[in-house]
Design a protein that fits this description.
Blueprint lengths: L1 H9 L2 H14 L4 H12 L24 H10 L6
């Protein structure tokens, strides 16, 4: 209830209700998610253009970790999950 009251003070009751409804649709119920979602829905966010890098800056390859390997290592150490 305090979160809804804070969101209402920040903008309006209608905005707070929209935020809570959207959060519930996504299955998000924690306070941080509500605050971030409210900011995303109701605050003006500056949209920046992507930075264009100079040609002399090397392109980095995308790193994709092998999460199964990490899971195997954790299981060997006695952990089920991170």
């Amino acid at each position: 209830m305090k979160a809804i009251a804070d969101l209402t003070q920040k903008s309006s009751f209608e905005s707070a209700v929209e935020t809570v409804s959207t959060a519930l649709a996504y299955g998000a119920t924690d306070l941080d998610s509500l605050i971030n979602l409210h900011s995303w829905l109701h605050e003006k966010v500056l949209q920046l253009e992507p930075v264009q890098l100079q040609d002399y800056i090397p392109k980095l390859e995308r790193y994709e970790p092998n999460l199964l390997a990490y899971d195997r290592i954790l299981r060997k150490a006695g952990e089920e999950r991170c």
